[in-house]
Amino acid sequence: MEKKLYKSESDKKICGVCGGIAKYFSIDATLVRLALVAFCLLGGSGILAYIICAIVIPDEPVDFIDA
After folding, report:
1. Do 64 and 16 form a contact (C-beta atoms < 8 A)?
2. Where are the domains of the chain?
3. What pTM value is reported for the model?
4. CA 42/CA 63 separation, integer angstroms
């Protein structure tokens, strides 16, 4: 099965972007969230990246959540 990037429906705080990225790379979502905070504090580029990802990355399909 081919890996695809989706926003997470099961591991989300705001839009599910960090949870989806963490699931795609098989890492803990907390690490992705900490990296996002670091990027936000270092010039604010994390906020723009999160907004773009929230718009561009598709929602997780319902049948994919159970897998």
Report:
1. no
2. 1-59
3. 0.80
4. 38
Note down pLDDT in tens along the chain; length 67 residues: 688 888 888 888 888 899 899 999 999 999 999 998 988 888 878 888 889 999 999 988 876 555 5
How many helices, marked H, and strands, marked E, lie in the chain? 4, 0
CA atoms within 13 A on the CB side of 19: 14
Residue 28, both tokens = 């803990």
Cα separation, 13 vs 4, whole angstroms = 20
Could you tell me the two tokens for 47?
């906020």
Range 23-57 burial, b when 16+ CB lie within 10 A, else e:
beeeeebeebbeebeebeeeeeebeeebeebeeeb
